[in-house]
């Protein structure tokens, strides 16, 4: 989601710049757009080596990108505190390129209500409403 202010936002497209996660626990490959405190989109490429991507990891992808959108800083922690609603597919095949989008609905201190969705070939394949705790733990 582009900024409505018309100003370009510079950001690092590498999610490991914002998150403490590293492979094999980093489930966002690249950040495409980022408007801190508002929204973020990212890409996940399901590699052939893993066979398929377990659908529950789509929730983790949304949570990781949501933490970045919430303004997670390097060295700060984050926790997926609650899943209010989640709709997941049976499986995601190897080779799929997934577009993950998250939006901060509201924030209260370190708690953030995040809506997320995952698209494959333009179709929504997963969506969820998550509560994240982001900040110094």
Automatic annotation (TrEMBL):
Single GO term (MF): lyase activity
Keyword Lyase: yes
Entry keywords, A to Z: Lyase
Superkingdom assignment: Bacteria
Claim: Lyase is one of the keywords in the record: yes
Record-linked InterPro entries: FabA_FabZ, HotDog_dom_sf
Coiled-coil regions, chain positions: none
Protein name in the entry: Beta-hydroxyacyl-(Acyl-carrier-protein) dehydratase, FabA/FabZ
Naturally occurring in which organism (per UniProt): Geotalea uraniireducens (strain Rf4)
